[in-house]
Amino acid sequence: MSDTPQTRQASEVDEPAETAPTTTTTTRTTTTGESDERVREEWRDHEFAGPAKLSVEDLNVHYGDDHALKDVSIDIPERSVTALIGPSGCGKSTFLRCLNRMNDRVSSARIEGSVTLDDEEIYQEGVNLVELRKRVGMVFQSPNPFPKSIRDNISYGPRKHGDLETGLLARLLGRADEDEREELVERCLRDAALWDEVNDRLDDNALGLSGGQQQRLCIARCLSVDPEVILMDEPASALDPIATAKIEDLIDELSEEYTVVIVTHNMQQAARISDQTAVFLTGGELVEYDATGKIFENPESQRVEEYISGKFG
Ligand SMILES: Nc1ncnc2c1ncn2[C@@H]1O[C@H](COP(=O)(O)OP(=O)(O)OP(=O)(O)O)[C@@H](O)[C@H]1O
Ligand SMILES: [Mg+2]
One biological-process term from Gene Ontology (predicted)? Predict the structure, then answer.
């Protein structure tokens, strides 16, 4: 009686994932063709050298009744590239937007859990959201420059935040606003690998640039307020291969100084540019997080392996 298939199945379901024995995980196939396996804690527990820039603990996001992110815990190391991959609708953008509280703008969103930036809770009361979004900047899928000159696109952010008048740079240099502005514009455009292409037309409208140039301008604009973390949501998905290669080279360079978190649908891109990769799967679960080489060559989860090899998603 105690050995009927029915009771065996019930005891398997009751067993907590973290105490599961090290036997092979039993999987079935769901109607969408995915394997039905339980996420194991150790698949998501990526160790890296050095302190975490961002630390996410038990993050849950609901949009009304829709549970978009489930119990996500992950540490993101500084000065590196972390890729977020997974099928459409699995919560990648939602997760990214939680890292600088952009989801606060979505009235139906309910966010629970903890996100720390340099060990400080960003979801505590009294956090200055303008300051937070300066430290954790964002670049979107479609380039969205302001309909202003190339120069103004860069100097607008610092001027809005008052940095050109009162910022450290201004105080140290003690120079006229104009000089500081020109210096900042050049530095940001150089850092975004765009200077050589636009330095003779800084007064032209930014909307006259190509898509790839506009996206680099948006990255330059993001750099102009001196961020520490740069969040990118599919920044190259609308670009041709040459523009994409430029963005990828740029991300590689930026990661020497900044912490970059990037959502991409392009597996080769994730494999090429990231140091570690987090895989989200349907239902808003973070299934596996590890060094990028490990995720792409030898993932622990069968579902991750199936996703990466293109069996679903
Ligand atoms: N503003 C919103 N209001 C209501 N539901 C939302 C909102 N944004 C996202 N969702 C829902 O949350 C879930 C996750 O969406 P999200 O945009 O984070 O997925 P994604 O992984 O970025 O997908 P894609 O790869 O298509 O961009 C989806 O079910 C989506 O419908
Ligand atoms: Mg998205």
Answer: phosphate ion transmembrane transport
Convert the pLDDT of each residue in 50-67 to its tens digit.
Answer: 789 999 999 999 999 999
Distance CA 296, CA 282 (A): 19
> Which amino acid is it at 139?
V
Query: What number of other Cβ atoms are within 10 A of residue 123's Cβ?
Result: 15
Rounded CA Rg of the chain:
22
Give the pTM. Answer: 0.85
Domain that residue 45 falls in? 35-144+227-308
60 domain-assigned:
yes
- The tally of domains found in the chain comes to 1
**Cβ(94) to ligand 1 under 6 A?**
yes
Q: What are phi and psi of 14, to 5 degrees?
A: -75, -20
The CA 62 to ligand 1 mean position distance, Å, reads: 10
Give the ligand with the smallest distance to the CA of 91. Answer: 1
| CA 197 to chain centroid | 28
